[in-house]
Amino acid sequence: MGFLITKIFDFFSGSKNNFKILILGIQNAGKTSILYRLSLGQFVKTTPTIGSNVEEINHQNVKMQAWDLGGQEKMRSVWDVYYLNSDAIIYVIDSNDFENFEESKNQFYLLLKNEALKNAVLLIFANKQDLITSKKIPDLIQIYDFDKIKDHIWHIQPCSALTGEGLEVGIKWLSDQLTGRTNFPKNPYIVNESNDNNVNNTTEGNKVNTDNSSGNINSGNRSDGLEMKKNNSENNNNNREDNIVKKEEKKSE
Hints:
This protein is α/β, with parallel strands linked by helices and 253 residues long. The chain has 8 helices and 6 strands, in the order αβαββαβαβαβααα. It has helices at 2-12, 31-40, 73-76, 101-112, 137-144, 167-179, 199-214, 216-252, and strands at 18-24, 52-59, 62-69, 88-94, 121-127, 154-158. A 6-stranded mixed sheet has the order 2-3-1-4-5-6, with helices on both faces. Helix 5 links the parallel strand 5 and strand 6 (154-158). The longest helix has 37 residues, at 216-252. The protein is globular and about 40 Å long. The protein starts with a helix and ends with a helix.
């Protein structure tokens, strides 16, 4: 009982290492599976959440009281009851659910408009990246217009609740943001664990890839090849002319 009272006191006393976070997203995005991966360290097969689940996530002495709220349409109408005093939002996307991207996007921007979340840090988990058909990060940024968010610090992290990949990277980013232990620029995102470029750098990288795929760079190579062929042809013509001159000189002798 004393332990429970201490936890409640620490949470509501505003300790700098205790934070309230909400895990949101539409139905079947994988919110509860991510919650248990982060709190228990293992994959737990779950059923659709009716109401809410709450667990404590600990990362480097930072305690995060994580509320996982049901994503069914009828449950979303009560999300705002939980918004007050929330330090961060973890928004979960099913990267493979193409049919519901628009619904998920609308719900995301609806919660951003709420005054109670104006100072909340945003961590976006692009879940189910273990599926080869899932949309990748640059595509999701374009679909959801994440790069247009100017009034929140945000980060999008590819992950898989099934394998656990990417979750630790995302929660470290969130922990660092909440405690001020970071030098990340505004609106950063990580494509994978070995790449922590920001959006602008990654966009530039995508531009290079786009140019490659469109054949612009190859067109330059083709031009170089044509130029070489032209030079070789001119050299061959010159050689033939020299041979003709030499033959004529021999005949005249």
